[in-house]
């Protein structure tokens, strides 16, 4: 496997940071380019199921997460109009035994802080809003609104539902999203 690839991840949210950790586990370095000047996550709480918690524990982040997470005993899903229970999800000790990982609740900002520290700020380039992608025979050139240009072997878009990366890479595709 070629591990000296120059990989650019556009977006340093939860997905981009987690991807950078996963690539690093395989000896692949990635640089993250984030449009905001300061890492901050909007929103409230996130529930992390066993697939996520097993991965983060394998990355050696258990102690960091213990400081900001709470074990969730379970969730109840209700109809937004009637309030009727329409489902539930348990997170008790049986959950860990069955799925091999905990069920955690964490604030998005705390999750992003733990992940950005694990990735390392030297790999996160803030103030880089993508304005153009140019495909060449042997590389892709990313252009940012701050005037910087970066060459990469591979570009990965992790810049959210309204992804500018997707617009540059998949011009012909339309994506529906919302709640």
Question: What topology does this entry show?
Answer:
Elements: E1 7-10, H1 14-25, E2 30-33, E3 45-48, H2 50-58, H3 62-66, E4 70-71, E5 74-78, E6 85-90, H4 93-99, E7 104-107, H5 108-119, E8 124-125, E9 130-135, E10 140-144, E11 149-152, E12 154-157, H6 164-169
Parallel strand pairs: 1-2, 1-12, 2-8
Antiparallel strand pairs: 3-7, 4-7, 5-6, 9-10, 10-11
Helix pairs in contact: 1-5
Pfam family, one: FAD_binding_3
Keywords: Monooxygenase, Oxidoreductase
InterPro entries: FAD-bd, FAD-dep_Monooxygenase_BioMet, FAD/NAD-bd_sf
User: Got a strand count?
Assistant: 12
Task: Report strand %.
Answer: 25-35%
Q: Which CATH class of the largest domain is shown?
A: Alpha Beta
Alpha-carbon Rg, integer = 19 Å
Order of helices and strands: EHEEHHEEEHEHEEEEEH
CATH topology of the largest domain: FAD/NAD(P)-binding domain
Q: Give the biggest sheet.
A: 4 strands, parallel
- Quote the average pLDDT: 88
Shape: globular
- How do the strands of the widest beta sheet line up side by side? 8-2-1-12
Q: Could you provide a short overview of the structure?
A:
The protein is α/β, with parallel strands linked by helices.
Could you explain the architecture of this structure?
With 179 residues, this protein is of the alpha/beta class. The protein has two domains: 1-38 and 126-179, FAD/NAD(P)-binding domain; 42-108, no CATH class. Helix content is 28%, strand content 28%. The chain contains six helices and twelve strands. Strands 8-2-1-12 form a four-stranded parallel β-sheet. The chain has a three-stranded antiparallel β-sheet with strand order 3-7-4. A three-stranded antiparallel β-sheet has the order 9-10-11. A hairpin with a 4-residue loop joins β9 (130-135) and β10. α1 runs parallel beside α5 (108-119). The longest helix has 12 residues, at 14-25. The N and C termini lie far apart (40 Å).
